[in-house]
Amino acid sequence: MKVTMAKLAGLVAVGLWVVGIGGRAAAQDVEITIKVSPKLAHEVSQAVDVGRDLGREIGEAVRGAMVDLASLSRTGRMLSQDRDFTAEQVDRVTRTLQLGPSGSLELKNIVGDITVTAGSGREVTVEIIRRARGRTAADARLGLERVQVEVDQRGERASVQARYPDEHHAPYSVSTIYTVTAPAGTHVTASSIAGNVTIKDIQGDLSVDLVSGNIDISSAGRISVAKTISGSVTVTGASTDGSLEIGSISGSIMAQDIKCRQLDMSTISGNVRAREVTCGGAQLKSMMGTVEYTGPLARSGRYELQSHAGQVLFTPTGSTGFELQANTFSGEIRTEMPLTLQGSVSGHSMMRRSIRGTFGDGSAVVIATTFSGNVIIGRK
Fold it and tell me: Radius of gyration of the chain from Cα atoms?
């Protein structure tokens, strides 16, 4: 029996009708029996579980974003004024820091891009560009006076931080751009309210946290976190012996040619794509988008792919076998791989809505779930 949304809506309507009867029949007991097939009951239960998970995860994401809403609101007001400001003043300064081959650098910004590239020398150079705009040149100059960038170094640790005064109706807007060249082994932490972050060839510990902006990390080493609230995240050619967390609330995220112990990727609105990745385990989630995994599996590894409104695409490579649990509420499950199901070997292009099966020795565990979409098990 195929469950359509109309049938599900009908069940909900019956439930509301029963509640209505109960409310009116205050002086008498009314008993109504509705027969529902076990399969339908199971699928409705799955839908309820998905809805509960959806609400919990959205709530957690919103609570995580709340800490930055005040700063984002002030930044938004400042940016909205920028189009009315035609006068401009620019200040450029370059600082050289002696942090050694594996020093720590913290970059904090409010409005503006951050770019970090590995260099061949032992020094860290930071070019800081402040661009102030106002209705008049005097207003723009006032912006340069009041918005400062502080550079603080203590031994092998240094921080670069933009300081904005707490003004609600400033006659100026100021953006600050950091362009950094550092030894490949430098540990870098970058954060901003509104701006993009680009990091290339840095092999030290990396952590990037944005409110509004895109993240692009390539040929990097030990990345722990790459997260933005509004924007896309792309991580390519990275290798770390630890865990890698990539996240967004509104934006697609991509991990390609990655090696790590554990890969965690999640977004609310956008696609989650992990391509040519090698990891001991993975957890990939999207509320409204496609979830994709392509790469070899680790023995005893656990790989969870979940979408609420999108396809789940799973394409394992290599020879490691796996145990598969796949479910969809209103889509189909398609597999190009021979799976052993309840003691029999399935054919290719099998279409179902729920399967449990084993490929090869079943040493890894794969869980692929979507509420509204197809689950496709591919093969290279």
Answer: 26
Rounded Cα distance, 350 and 373, in Å = 16
Taking CA 328 as the corner, what is the angle to CA 335 and CA 361, rounded to the nearest 5 degrees?
45
Which residues are within 8 A (CB) of 133 and not within 5 positions of it... i.e. 6 or more apart?
82, 85, 86, 87, 88, 89, 140, 143, 172, 173, 174
Q: Which two tokens stand for residue 58?
A: 């959205």
Q: 90 in a domain, yes or no?
A: no
Report d(CA 307, CA 4) in Å as an integer.
19
Report the candidate in 356, 352, 354 with the shortest Cα–Cα distance to residue 365. Answer: 356
User: How many Å apart are CA 48 and CA 55, to the nearest integer?
Assistant: 11
Burial of 59: CB neighbours in 10 Å, binned 0-12, 13-18, 19+: exposed
Q: How far separated are the first and last CA of the chain, in Å rounded?
A: 34
Question: Rounded to two decimals, what is the model's pTM?
Answer: 0.79
Q: State the 10-residue block means of pLDDT for the chain, 380 residues long.
A: 38 36 42 48 50 51 46 51 79 95 94 95 94 94 95 95 88 95 96 96 94 95 91 94 92 96 95 97 96 96 96 94 93 89 51 84 95 88
> Is 192 in contact with 206 (CB distance < 8 Å)?
no
Range of the domain at 269: 37-67+232-380
The answer as to whether 317 is a domain residue is: yes
Structural domain count, the chain: 1
Length of the chain: 380
In this structure, the strands spanning 104-108 and 187-194 are parallel
* Residue 119, domain member (yes or no): no
Q: Which value, to the nearest 10 degrees, does the dihedral of the CA atoms of residues 295, 298, 299, 302 take?
A: -90
Q: How many Cβ atoms sit within 10 Å of the Cβ of residue 245? A: 17
- How far apart CA 284 and CA 296 sit, in angstroms, is 15
Position 113 in a domain: no
Q: Which residues contact 137 (CB under 8 A, 6 or more apart)?
A: 87, 89
Give dist(CA 112, CA 166) in Å, integer: 18
Does residue 13 sit in helix, strand or coil? helix
Owner of token pair 């090698």: 278
Spatial distance between the Cα atoms of 266 and 37, rounded to a whole number of angstroms: 35
